[in-house]
Specification:
- Chain C: Residues 2-224 form the ABC transporter domain.
- Chain C: Keywords: ATP-binding, Nucleotide-binding, Transport.
- Chain C: This is ABC transporter ATP-binding protein.
- The complex is a heterotrimer.
- Chain A is an all-alpha fold.
- Helix content of chain A is 82%, strand content 1%.
- A two-stranded parallel ribbon of chain A has the order 1-2.
- The radius of gyration of chain A is 24 Å and the shape is globular.
- The relative contact order of chain A is 0.11.
- The model of chain A has no long low-confidence stretch (mean pLDDT 89).
- In chain B, the strands form 6 sheets. Chain B has a 5-stranded antiparallel sheet, with no helix packed on it. Chain B has a 5-stranded antiparallel sheet with strand order 4-3-2-27-24, with no helix packed on it.
- The longest helix of chain B has 23 residues, at 5-27.
- The mean pLDDT of chain B is 81.
- The N and C termini of chain B lie far apart (63 Å).
- Helix content of chain B is 10%, strand content 51%.
- By secondary structure, chain B is mainly β.
- Chain B folds into 2 domains: 29-78 and 299-410, no CATH class; 91-288, no CATH class.
- In chain C, 31% of the residues lie in helices and 27% in strands.
- Chain C is globular and about 50 Å long.
- Chain C is of the alpha/beta class.
- A 6-stranded mixed sheet of chain C has the order 6-7-8-3-9-10, with helices on both faces. In chain C, strands 2-1-4-5 form a 4-stranded antiparallel sheet, covered by helices on one side.
- Classes of the chains: A mainly alpha, B mainly beta, C alpha/beta.
- Chains in contact: A-B, A-C.
């Protein structure tokens, strides 16, 4: 356990730079988005009211108030989120390959540590989770500050204030990363963790058996997906809806846990017996 | 410990930020207004069994929301759209109680009230299943899937029967299931292909089955869409009785015939004529009720198996008239004052239970009020009269709509 | 004692090791000699469980390799074993964090011995100094066995001398060492035992001192006899 925590800390320090860069980009681009978009809106308001002599009330009925939802639905806002998602996806592969590739053969050191090699797997997967949740947490902290900037930029009459929760629930894109309820949050990120575990297993297969491992990895992933959806397939195609929804849900959770356990076991086996420097 | 500070910090930030967000969203009060039924006259006790189901739509802070809700005597309960709730779904109360009582039997059965029949001896279920052919023109091999639970013996009889003439059919839907005199009746809506005109014609069909021998005793159409009338649109609706899982000797159908006028540029609907038809499952006889019901003026609002409740909205007043099928005559009409403010012309939702009539308007907003009425059907006395209101006046906003989709009486 | 028994290893269809067996005792320096590509590094990797073998068995003091083994044996590979952006000090701290057998005192001693600066980044080191850092990290572990892969390859003369000095110092005393090399001359006089490898098998395993004393042959003489004779 102690070694695991040491390794997680070590791995986190390795990614902290990339992580900070992603946070920085998110902060700068989203803040810029708030400023640019409120200026655009105010600019339009000025133009319509001063040049086209539209009354304020008329402008508000025609164009509406600006709310944070407008800002969230722009590239300024969703772009950095997509970038962060891509960054994490990229890092899922990098977290392993960086130890093998090029001059850096840190994998020698990792595999020679006097601790179970599964800790390496756990440390790397924990890191992916910490990085992801860190980005989500940062976005949650950022939202009220961005709303504050909007408040400073736009006069009350033209503005429609929304709470953080309201902002998130009103935009489907955001509910993907910040689901409405904690249960969903656990399920979403649990499923994500499972997917990463399957990918890690496939990566370790490639590391163990090279190109044959790629085929094995693809097959393993396909099998895992098949196992995961098999209860739903059976329910729909063979059993004619035999299970009640709650039962099916529990079965799916059990399936997920089984696939996760098999992936962990398989990864442990590969790291111990099959992996090569 | 110093070298762990970044790691410790990020974990702390994650837990605090995400934790705060979900704790806050769990404890923060609903922003949406609370609706209450405000008494104008009568006894609020009469509201006890009443549940109004609907949805609230508002432009709360410029942000469009739509939330499902339930209004009872106690107030408003917004349906929690939590993941698990959505997953489990919310079957009708009848189905829910059947699922609790007969968990094994109810497995894999479509949760629609009209597919079930229950009396003290049997719980029966019938639905239509089919194999999808290679193309839609191919016959779909329609089969009745029938399951009958014998409550006393606690045994289940499951069997399938090929739908006769299935090769001519494009769709078969089950409208109702009834056991009368030990015979199983399945009432369906069939879409039958006519090879001559290459068109589909709708019909209501009844299949009578000998449950012991699993054989058709007979089957026949109840009402058929007339052929050769290309310029009309014909529609047959089965009017589900209150508590359709219970035994009803009489079925009620409503046919609507609309004239379709084709101009060079557009198609529009011309004259509409409606006809109500009752069907007696025991005698297999049907009867036209049109003259009695005066459907030009009245709407059919409820059917409890023995009486049809006709409603007619006139300004702020609604007139309810029962028509007794057995006596073949109209009963006394009752006039209910719904609200003082102008309201829409859509008739209110009506439920009949235990000799009482429950009525509620189906819409409310800042210009329209919604009334709730409980009345005694025998005497015509109003037992309760009230109005839906927003509890806290500061919650009142300009732009909102409350729709009542359904009313339930427990 | 490290026992390598009938180890076979394939890369694809090519058999690199075809039943290699030898032993290395504590307190002895065993030298694996063979031309490049003969599988010397593979044997060391296999001992450290860094690459799977198809057949055979490797035992350390009678037991198969497991995670605890890494507190008893250290491997000094011919590759970077620490992150390039780490300083030498950070690398030492890393070792201290994970190994209970890490000897910080000895690590500092080695730092002085090799004249390395603790604040230097590993990426900025010369080939010779990189090899020295590797040695430092391997030797500062209080382990019974040390494996070294080509410690002299590609290293300048002076560094070579410094490294060779390690073998005569107390740093090696009482430990079992397996060293691979294709240039035996630098350490010929230090070697206790020689394992000659060719074509995936051990062609000769002999005691270097005995050969010197009994037959009056140097290690190179024996090699010549085996490979050319």
């Amino acid at each position: 356990m102690k070694n695991y925590l040491k390794l997680v800390n070590f791995e986190f320090n390795r990614v902290v730079k990339l992580f900070t860069i992603l946070l920085g980009i998110t902060l700068v681009v989203q803040m810029a988005g708030v400023i640019v978009q409120s200026r655009e809106y105010l600019g339009r308001a000025n133009e319509k009211m001063n040049e086209d002599l539209m009354s304020k009330a008329q402008f508000l009925t025609d164009y509406g108030q600006i709310s944070f939802a407008h800002i969230v639905r722009s590239v300024w806002f969703l772009g950095p989120i997509a970038l962060c998602a891509a960054g994490v996806a990229f890092y899922i592969f990098l977290v392993w390959y960086r130890d093998w590739v090029g001059k850096n053969t840190f994998i020698y050191r990792l595999l020679m540590l006097p601790t179970t090699r599964l800790n390496i797997f756990f440390a790397k997967i924990s890191n992916i989770l910490i990085m992801t949740l860190g980005l989500v947490a940062f976005q949650l902290i950022l939202l009220p500050f961005e709303a504050l900037v909007l408040k400073w930029m736009v006069p009350d009459d033209f503005r429609n204030d929304m709470g953080v929760k309201e902002t998130i629930t009103s935009i489907p894109e955001l509910t993907i990363i910040i689901p409405n309820s904690f249960v969903e949050f656990v399920l979403y990120y649990g499923a994500g963790l499972l997917a990463v575990a399957i990918l890690f297993t496939a990566i370790l297969m490639e590391r163990s058996f090279k190109w044959k491992g790629i085929i094995a990895g693809v097959l393993y992933s396909a099998m895992a997906i098949l196992v995961l959806i098999s209860p739903v397939l059976l329910q729909e195609l063979v059993l004619n809806g035999f299970f009640y929804p709650m039962e099916l849900f529990v079965i799916e959770i059990v399936m997920g846990i089984i696939v996760l356990a098999v992936s962990i076991w398989m990864s442990g086996f590969l790291l111990k017996k099959k992996v090569t420097v | 410990m110093k070298k762990y500070w970044k790691f410790t910090a990020i974990i702390a930030v994650i837990v605090l930020s995400i934790g705060t967000f979900y704790v806050n969203s769990a404890i923060s009060a609903d922003q949406n207004p609370e609706f209450v039924i405000k008494k104008e006259s009568g006894d609020t006790k009469e509201l006890e069994p009443l549940v109004l189901e609907g949805s609230y739509q508002g432009a709360s802070s410029g942000n469009y929301v739509s939330r499902d809700l339930k209004i009872t005597r106690q107030g408003t309960e917004y349906r929690n759209p939590s993941f698990l709730n959505r997953l489990i779904g919310s079957p009708m109360p009848v189905i829910e109680s059947l699922q609790e009582q007969y968990r094994g039997f109810m497995r894999g059965k479509s949760p629609s009230e009209n597919l079930f029949f229950e009396n003290d001896r049997f719980l029966a279920y019938a639905n239509v299943d089919y194999e999808i052919g290679f193309n839609s023109r191919e016959s779909k091999d329609y089969t009745f899937e029938i399951d009958i639970l014998n409550k006393k013996e606690d045994s289940t009889d499951s069997f399938t029967m090929k739908v006769p003439d299935a090769n001519k059919m494009d769709h078969v839907f089950v409208d109702d299931v009834q056991i009368i005199n030990g015979e199983l009746n399945i009432i369906t809506e069939n879409m039958v292909r006519d090879n001559n005109s290459d068109r589909l014609y709708g019909e209501k069909h009844i299949y009578t089955i000998d449950m012991a021998n699993q054989k058709f005793i007979k089957h026949e159409p109840i009402i058929k869409e007339p052929k050769g009338q290309d310029n009309t649109h014909f529609d047959i609706t089965f009017i589900e009785a209150e508590g359709s899982t219970k035994m009803h000797e009489k079925l009620l159908f409503l046919t609507t015939e609309r004239e379709v006028i084709k101009d060079r540029e557009s198609t529009r609907i011309g004259d509409t004529s409606r006809e109500a038809i009752s069907y007696n499952l025991k005698t297999k006889e049907k009867r036209r009720l049109s003259e009695d019901l005066n459907l030009e003026e009245n709407e059919i609002s409820a059917f409890d198996g023995s009486a049809i409740y006709l409603t007619k909205v006139n300004g702020q007043k609604v007139m309810v008239t029962p028509f007794h099928l057995e006596k073949k005559q109209l009963g006394d009409s009752y006039l209910f004052q719904l609200s003082d403010k102008p309201m829409n012309e859509v008739p209110p939702l009506i439920k009949i239970k235990d000799g009482k009539l429950y009525a509620a308007s189906n819409r409310m907003n800042s210009n329209t009020t919604a009334s709730v009425i409980v009345a005694d059907l025998k005497t015509g006395d109003s037992l309760f009269k009230g109005e839906l209101r927003i509890k806290n006046s500061e919650d009142e906003i300009e732009d909102y709509d409350l729709y009542i989709h359904d009313i339930f009486v427990k | 004692m490290i026992e390598v028994k009938e180890v076979e290893k394939k890369f694809g269809r090519k058999k690199i090791l075809r039943g290699v067996s030898f032993t290395a005792k504590k307190g002895e320096i065993t030298c694996l000699i063979g031309i490049n590509g003969v599988g010397k590094t593979t044997i060391l990797n296999a001992i450290m469980a860094l690459t799977p073998v198809q057949k055979g068995e490797i035992l350390l003091d009678g037991e198969p390799i497991k995670e605890k083994t890494f507190e008893k044996i250290s491997f000094i590979p011919d590759a970077l074993t620490m992150l390039p952006n780490m300083t030498i000090e950070k690398a030492m701290e890393f070792m201290n964090d994970f190994y209970t057998c890490w000897n910080m005192e000895r690590a500092r001693e080695l730092l002085g011995f090799f004249r390395l600066h603790k604040d230097d980044r590993i990426a900025s080191l010369s080939k010779g100094n990189t090899a020295k850092v590797n040695l430092l990290l391997g030797l500062a572990l209080d382990v019974d066995y040390i494996l070294m892969d080509e410690p002299f390859s590609g290293i300048d003369m002076f560094s070579r001398e410094e490294i060779a000095n390690v073998f005569t110092s107390h740093l090696i005393e009482n430990r079992g060492v397996i060293i691979t090399t294709h240039e035996v001359s630098d350490i010929e006089h230090l070697i206790d035992k020689v394992v000659l490898l060719d074509d995936g098998v051990v062609t000769k395993e002999f005691d270097a001192e005995k050969a010197r004393e009994d037959d009056g042959m140097s290690v190179i003489d024996v090699m010549r006899e085996v490979y050319q004779g």
